[in-house]
Amino acid sequence: MYAYVSFMEHDIFKALADPTRRAIFEKLAAAGMNASALREGMAISQPAMSQHLAVLRTARLVREERQGRFVNYEVDPDGLALIAQWLAKYRAYWPARIDALKDLLRDMDQ
Amino acid sequence: MYAYVSFMEHDIFKALADPTRRAIFEKLAAAGMNASALREGMAISQPAMSQHLAVLRTARLVREERQGRFVNYEVDPDGLALIAQWLAKYRAYWPARIDALKDLLRDMDQ
DNA sequence: GAGTCAGATAAGTGTATGCTTATGTTTCTT
DNA sequence: AAGAAACATAAGCATACACTTATCTGACTC
Fold it and tell me: Is the pTM of this model over 0.85?
């Protein structure tokens, strides 16, 4: 069981280590869209985008939904949940004062 | 200001993309210790450890405290805070409760 | 002061990674 | 049925990265 988590954890951090993929993820967080729409204003080739999306998919940071010949992408909460889980392990070290962090903590505490 | 955050963000995800560095960080989260103590049971050369610690330091995931000829390392809350901040941006996508996390883990267990 | 110990840095090397061009696959249009 | 559009995949290449061995720096001991 934890082996799976470790693999996923590795995939996630690997995926987020690339600035282009973080930008793609951020764009998808604002609104789900297909790969072509994602490319707009991003100076990235079609194969490169496809490869990045594959990495994000493997990390469960993003999920696809086929719609005819389009593939709509959106944020997959599972990946974010795993990051939250990883972060929660080190909760003892978070600075207590930052308001945003308090919100974070409260939400994860439920 | 936000430029600094972006740089730091990149350093952090790059740093955590390596499994050895995640292991080092995890060990330090359990207890602060010097570089030699960190190496114990880790099958890693002295220069490699030193290089990994430099990366973690740059990412502000870890901080050093010289003590004579020893250098004691410990978790730096600043790095964790930046991850929490990053994660907070996507709070809208988190599974509503921890139960969802448990479901995820169970699913991954198959 | 000489030797030793903890750790950092330098330089070189094999592999991983992100890109490119080319091509494949599926769906839609006409 | 033929072409085009939306993606995915394959193969090749240049760079980044994590490791190695060798050397350097600074602090402690004798």
Answer: yes
